[in-house]
Amino acid sequence: MPKAKRLLNLRVIAHVIGTLLIINGFLMAMSIPFSIYYDDGATWSFVTSALLTFCCGLGLRIANKQSKDAEIKKRDGYLIVVLGWISMVIFGSLPYIMSGEISNISNAFFETMSGFTTTGATILGDKGHEISTLPESLLFWRSTTQWIGGMGIIVLTIAILPLLGIGGMELFVAEAPGPTKDKIHPRIKETAKRLWVIYFGLTFLEMILLMLSGMNFFDAINHAFTTTSTGGFSTKDGSIADFNSPLIEYIIIFFMFLAGTNFTLIYFGLKGKLKHFWKNDEFKWYLMSIIGLTIVLTPFVLNNSEGGIGQAFRETLFQVISMITTTGYSSADYMLWGGLVVFIFFLLLFSGASAGSTSGGMKIVRIVLLIKNGLMEFKRRLHPNAVIPVHLNKEPVSNKIIYNLLAFTFLYLFIFTLGSIVITAIGGVTFKEAISAVATSVGNVGPGLGSIGPTGNFSEIPDASKWVLSLLMLMGRLELFTVALIFTPYFWKRN
Length: 495
What we know:
With 495 residues, this protein is mainly α. It has helices at residues 10-29, 32-38, 43-63, 74-92, 94-99, 105-116, 136-151, 153-160, 168-175, 188-212, 217-228, 246-259, 263-270, 275-279, 281-303, 309-324, 339-348, 364-382, 399-426, 431-442, 463-477, 481-485; strands spanning 391-392, 395-396. Mean pLDDT is 87; it is low at 160-169.
């Protein structure tokens, strides 16, 4: 009898996860020089955590070394991404726990998941547990987790280590942030490398500009990490508002906007092919949404703040871009700007910026296609026998994409509804806080409404809710289907 094919190649899955943990250990060790320089008392916590992470990863690779050239199938790819991400979070929480700064395992896992998924929700900020009192090495690690998660550790692995064989595409599809069919280069490894060059370049440029604007090196590198990744972790308890600098705010506004732009477009822009921007429907909607919302909301902000028109415009623009790109920085407390502004910002928790960017949320391209498909339905009602496709960038969109879009939207709203019910049932928060906590977690935004708003934190959320929200962050970061798929019976059945 012929030998039955394996449903999953567990050895190759363990091999790749081992590779991810080795990378995680090296990146964790980057915090050690900061700990030594600032003498912050967390050096041995990082040495121990990095060595443990590295050794566990090395052990997995050695134990499964025969599988390094094996092909990664679809099921393997999806499971590697999910288990790899969870493994990164588990080991990434070790520095918090070992240093004693976040001794509660639920809090440490939540903070680390928020970092790797670039959500930016935090349990820090209470009196006696302020962000600014954390050891500098932990603050840097906190920012590093967001920088790693921004483009995706899987993409980094494909770009740097040619260890994944011809199955690398499966990982890239499961991990790359946002649905986009544009190709920078026909080979997936070269695509990943180019994405990371752009990502690193934007990070470095922002760091230099922030230093020139008055930030010290430590604050500049941390905020460059968490802006380019659209993560939103800050070294200050009051986020960007603590710097009280219009120039710093405008620099961060500019780089948040770029981070929310499809990186393929940025690549073509750097090649001098600017026409790609004006031919891209999503980019035009992205730009016009920011301009339109800023113009509409500025008068309401002006009416509810003490500053003049210039400050109101800057604060509105900053917060609109921060919410749309799911960065989650705050330059002011938007909860004081009136009910209409707060409601619009709640809706922006679902939006996200461009596909192919580092932002979370549904992505503007999906919203654009939903609107266009809805409008086309009116025309189809009048002409039931006509074939009337939806167009994007002047090209017809296939029914397969429309069906996928509708399925994604249903799943997104279903997860939001179910999550809201669960968080409300667990208790400890108001209904407004519960639904905003779920929305901001699935959208990977960070702040919500009420006590978890821009001046609050998630410390008072029950531990059970933190685990649920952590799962929602992971689902949102990996575009829902990647995680949801492994919970379906189809994933575990042989075809």
